[in-house]
Amino acid sequence: MPxxxxxxxxxxxxxxxxxxxxxxxxxxxxxxxxGGPNAGHTIVVGEETYKIRALPTGIVRGKICVIGNGCVIDxxxxxxxxxxxxxxxxxxxxxxVSGNAHLIMPWHLAIDSASERRLGKLAxxxxxxxxxxxxxDKAARIGIRVQDILDPKILRQKIEVALAEKNLWLExxxxxxxxxxxxxxxxxxxxxxxxxxxxxxxxxxxxxxLKEGQSVLFEGAQATLLDLDHGTYPFVTSSNPVAAYAAxxxxxxxxxxxxxxGVSKAYVTRVxxxxxxxxxxxxxxxxxxxxxxxxxxxxxxxxxCGWLDLVAxxxxxxxxxxxxxxxxxxxxxxxxxELPVCVRYELPDGTETEDFPAHQSDFHAARPVYETLPxxxxxxxxxxxxxxxxxxxRSYVEFVERELDVEVQLVGTGAERTNVxxxx
Length: 424
Ligand code: IMP
Fold this sequence. Notes:
By secondary structure, the chain is an alpha/beta fold. It has twelve helices and 19 strands. It has a ten-stranded mixed sheet, sandwiched between helices. The protein has a three-stranded antiparallel sheet with strand order 16-15-17. α2 (75-87) runs parallel beside α6 (181-195), α3 crosses α4 and α5 (152-173) crosses α6 (181-195). The chain is globular and about 65 Å long. The two termini are 18 Å apart. The chain binds inosinic acid. Inosinic acid (IMP) binds at residues 12-13, 38-40, 124-127, 129, 131-132, 222, 226, 235, 237-238, 271-272.
């Protein structure tokens, strides 16, 4: 398929990086279309572990890598990552950054932290990477874009305009230190030298690639339930991870997207605050966290763990138009005798539903209705295809397919790049 979107179907951390890495083998371009360094993808190749935050995962396989207009970029993170890949022997000459992407400025980081502190108990639990404040400025039309670094005069003017307002907020509302124009501009001018060669018209580049029949992957960051419009607002990120945004965030027509592959863990995790109906109560919560290594790549925070939630996953299938699923980390479930799967929610009025509640008060009060499937204790690491899975593991996968009416095309069984089972 020429244009495939890979989208997180839960609350993030589904292992999208590994699936993108696998599919990137047969692709020409890998594009990020939203988000910024709040994402953290881990790719394990033999002895080497790559932790990627800004660049598309395709960098590990030397593919053409595009950071689209829908992304936000922290120049320091991007430069550190470019330097690191070059140090490890990977060329970065095929990295292209949209001039329309927005830059995360130091005040965005400061405001993200200060605003979380101020919210106290109502805090969102952001990654504190400046994502929300940067997208807010984009919408308010006072953001600084990558193309601004191409002209030092414009850059300084824009920083001056932004600082005049941001410093007021920082000092008067958040009672923190203001930023100094000369220092911020000086640092960014330095970064500009390093980033300049990568700036390109990425919309044109991707359009041409598709016209030539090249194969393009659109790599979602975060996930459906963290989507600004379709997620569990306000406990969401400030961009649109859903698949349709791949077209907007890269600058191609909506009809150019051919296939949507959803990525879901075989259970659920969530970082940060917010409702989570199938969150595990009792010692299995800790057990699953340890078995799955469920600690944040970016912040090191613990991830809350839950049983697979098919109500939420059915919703993800709907809002993304998911054609096929990749079910990751099935091996983590090998150690449980019984596996509850949430098939419906019970709502406050006593009714049960298979459909994700449209309103927050229903979702906040929703109680999971479980069907319990038998576990398995055979190891999965000797399996080569989905058909090789032990009978109960196979039944688990088939149960998901039946309930969602979507084919599970890939199954993840371990951290290594090779631990992904296919159908054939
Ligand atoms: P922000 O994106 O830093 O503004 O954080 C908003 C919410 O999204 C918080 O609950 C974060 O924990 C969550 N979040 C952001 N990025 C990721 C991710 O890559 N994985 C999981 N959760 C994320």
